[in-house]
Amino acid sequence: MRTSIIQEDRLGLIHYPANGWTVVEVTGDVDAHTAPRIREAVIALLNEGHRHFVLDLCPAPFLDSMGLGMIVAITKRIRDREGSLRLTCVNDKILKIFGICDLRRIYAFHDSVDQATRRAPQRGGLARWPRPLLT
To answer: What InterPro entries does the record tag this protein with (predicted)?
Structure first.
């Protein structure tokens, strides 16, 4: 079941379960305006008991440094709850930002939600973060 968290002109955020993961799909730019709202939504899901996340950035056309900082911040929160995080992204411009900041090697990137959720999550998937993750 897909549940809408935010539906505005600049940001759409839904979540749904997939093979033990909570997929959070972001539609719209991930920037200084939207990043705090995304962070709050993921923290609310953590507080509801969700632990294993796929952040689906495939529908997102843009990500800036505030968006990148938000992803690092939620990664720390998820790690503290012994959860896991995978990212989906096919946008070369967004992937380049992760590469420039040398974060591409420490996140598990996938081309689709189906690919990211193929294997069920394991507890403590971020226990070694920020060392390079295995996909």
So the answer is: Anti-sigma_ant, STAS_dom, STAS_dom_sf
42 domain-assigned: yes
Question: Per the structure block, which two tokens stand in for 70?
Answer: 């938000």
pLDDT tens across 9-62, in order? 889 999 999 999 999 999 999 999 999 999 999 999 999 999 999 999 999 999
43, 22 Cβ separation under 8 angstroms: no
- The Cβ of residue 24 has, within 10 Å, a number of other Cβ atoms equal to 22
| CATH code where residue 15 lies | 3.30.750.24
- Cβ proximity of 23 and 16 under 8 Å: yes
